[in-house]
Design brief:
The chain is α+β, with helices and mostly antiparallel strands. It has two domains: 111 residues, Sandwich (Immunoglobulin-like), CATH 2.60.40; 35 residues. The strands form two sheets. Strands 1, 3, 5, 6, 7, 10, 11 and 12 form an eight-stranded mixed beta sheet that branches. The chain has a four-stranded antiparallel beta sheet with strand order 2-4-9-8, with no helix packed on it. The radius of gyration is 47 Å and the shape is rod-shaped. GO terms for molecular function: coreceptor activity; MHC class I protein binding. It is found in: Membrane.
């Protein structure tokens, strides 16, 4: 009866943590709500995506007295407050998938309810396994240095790595023979001149 006449507004006066909880069936969890203004107590609501409505769970006043909503189990939901009345925690036990939803802490102000940022609770039978990414190692093939001797031993006789060194060797050999041929030519000419002078 407290829910419907009041408007809902998110407020920076409430700090709610954590933002998201993922847990298994039959576990328990805690949602914390810190207040930055004077209040008479804290309301806790759950937004059900399936039923598309807010469900009132429990109200806890500054004296520690709790008032529960219709069909809300006191054994499942409990509210604990700090001595300074500046923070409240909602304890939920014996979790089931039906408990999944977004939970809000709230304080009344005039004709409004100031809401926290919300905590999305997801209850599953088994937690998903972390994804293991297997990376294929990149094969780093070493590029061999090709020497003249290795190139000459290749089967392909038309390979440039074969005939270029050979051609260079022949050219060097020919260049080395030119001075020798020149000396032989001069020596032959001298002998020819001596023979004809006599």
């Amino acid at each position: 009866c407290l829910l419907f006449p009041l408007g809902f507004y998110t407020s920076l006066l409430l700090t709610q943590t954590p933002e998201h909880i993922l847990t298994q069936t039959n576990n328990k969890t805690v949602i914390l709500c810190e207040l930055k203004k004077e209040h008479t107590g804290v309301y806790w609501y759950r937004w059900s995506q399936e039923r598309q409505h807010f469900e009132f769970l429990v109200f806890s006043n500054t004296l520690g007295k709790a008032t529960y909503g219709t069909n809300v189990s006191q054994a499942k939901f409990g509210v604990h407050e700090a001595r300074s009345h500046s923070s409240y925690s909602l304890h939920i036990s014996h979790l089931q998938p039906s408990d999944s939803g977004t939970y809000y802490c709230s304080v009344p102000q005039s004709s409004q309810l100031l809401l926290g940022s919300g905590t999305r609770l997801s209850v599953v039978d088994a937690l998903p396994l972390p994804l293991t990414t297997t990376q294929t190692p990149v094969s780093k093939k070493s590029v061999p240095w090709i020497t003249k001797s290795r190139a000459a031993s290749r089967k392909d006789p038309c390979s440039p790595l074969v005939w270029i060194p050979l051609a260079a060797g022949v050219l060097l050999l020919l260049l080395g023979l030119i001075p020798t041929a020149h000396r032989l030519y001069r020596l032959r000419r001298r002998l020819w001149l001596r023979v004809h002078r006599q």
